[in-house]
Amino acid sequence: MADPDRTGRLREALRAANFTADGLLDLLGGPAYAALARSETVPALRATRGTSPLETLVRLFLLRQGVPRERARNALPLDDALEDGWLVPAPDAGDGEAVRATVDVRPYGGPEGQDWWIVADLGCAVGGASGVGTPEGTHGRDVVLGVGGASTTLAGITVRRPVGRALDIGTGSGLQALHAAQHAGRVTATDLNPRAVAVAGLTLALSGASGVDVREGTLFEPVAGDEPYDLIVSNPPFVISPGARLTYRDGGMSGDDLCRTLVENAADHMAEGGYCQLLANWEHPRGQDWRERLRSWVPAGCDAWIVQREVQDVTQYAELWLRDAGDHRAGAAEYEARYGEWLDEFERRGTTAVGFGWITLRKSGAREPAVVVEEWPHPVEQPLGGEVVQHFERQDFLRATDDAALLDCHFRLADGVVQEQVGMPGAEDPEHVVLRQQRGMRRATKVDTVGAGFAGVCDGSLPAWRILDAIAQLVGEDPVMLRDRTPSAIRLLVEQGFLLPAEADAPAG
Ligand SMILES: C[S@@+](CC[C@H](N)C(=O)[O-])C[C@H]1O[C@@H](n2cnc3c(N)ncnc32)[C@H](O)[C@@H]1O
């Protein structure tokens, strides 16, 4: 619907009014801004009772308010906005001369401080679908959400190196495609939902990202026969639910089959050295190890790093998604019936809990792929894209380095690693020593005295065996035995990013 010149003029008006992420926070203040993210609009309505262009735009595009035409004309090119359908007359606002927005538009700060605007269905810019009460009633099952916590998580963990071709599956509002357009020569974005295809087009146009190819269709179908992609990202409809009720979240396949299908088929569409990164939910079936199950999804020729960030029992999980859809606002009987449907489905499938996390594949072509499946529920430092690349680089190093070669290597302690000693107050010796990262994954790992001593000396100047021999002498241990038993501990410290392989930057002596 949008003409590029008119869209450009609208963008300039939004910017001139300071309808940006920072401008919004300044106007509303922290509490009202945070309340809006919880779908509570009253504080923001109170903060926008003036007539400035910024207040007008917030009322129109985030609070679903009708606004008098002349006020709207002060804030944006009114005729253009009416022509392109951003606004329509709103006689029901009690003022025959009022206009209202047809979509939500949320200011969003890009990674380099860019001013972007994410388009979504009315009531869905912030706070998710529960903000609109009953989404099915308002927009039908094909409601298009704006930016949620999952969206920003995926954007943060995505590898942001310059690439030729990127693909965003299930683009929705178009946020991931917009990010990808900053570092990919060509971006393709797909969605099953034709309304999402249109909405993503608006986000991209309004935010000034031209040339993204937005296609309609399911999973990999719209890109069948395309050249392989260097980066595939997807925040798919991963919810494990009793029925395909809402397109943005229910994949319409049973259990976690949609996520499994994406992972299993990704390799066919990945270029050598390319990455595929997705968010997923997975079942914990009764009597089966979830880690083994996830491992079995990884396609041949791909290394994988799978991180379970959270696990919920089936009741917590059902409640989360019942609230997400606004079902808690329905009558008690309906809520009970819907809740029962979720539990029936989990009982039928033998699912005891559901994991939520990140899946990254890298097409290495390795005969012995490095597949790491782990649980890390603690806070991390976003963006993590750089850490993802380093994870796989460290895996390459470990795969290519046997234990003898490892002892000849030089290592350095990663930046921001500190040592914590845990024990009774006043005790002479700690009960255990923990190495903790203050950056990236913010991991913590228990080490013994040798591990702590070894890590402390690693500045890249000595080969590992030299450090170990010195430690052996200090603690009175046989150096051969120590060299023999330590490589597995060094491997773990390297795998987790505490120690980094270093060029020998000083003579070993
Ligand atoms: C959770 S939303 C993600 C939106 C956006 N990418 C983000 O990160 O915020 C999932 C999207 O997948 C789309 N979708 C649902 N089923 C799909 C399918 N089978 N193939 C492709 N996209 C699908 C939905 O329409 C929705 O836009």
How is this structure best described in words?
By secondary structure, the protein is an alpha/beta fold. The chain is 39% helix and 24% strand. The protein contains 20 helices and 19 strands. It has an eight-stranded mixed beta sheet, sandwiched between helices. A hairpin with a 6-residue loop joins strand 16 and strand 17 (444-447). Helix 18 (464-475) packs across helix 19 (479-485). The longest helix has 18 residues, at 332-349. The chain is elongated. The termini are far apart. 42% of the residues are buried. The model has no long low-confidence stretch (mean pLDDT 94).
Q: Helix amount, in percent?
A: 25-40%
**Rg to the nearest angstrom?**
26 Å
Q: How can the largest sheet be summarized?
A: 8 strands, mixed
Low-confidence stretches: none
Global outline: elongated
Beta-strand percent range: 15-25%
Widest beta sheet: strand line-up: 8-7-6-9-10-12-11-13
Mean pLDDT, as a whole number? 94
List the bound ligands.
Answer: S-adenosylmethionine
Distance between the termini: 71 Å
Number of strands: 19
Number of helices: 20
Structural class: alpha/beta
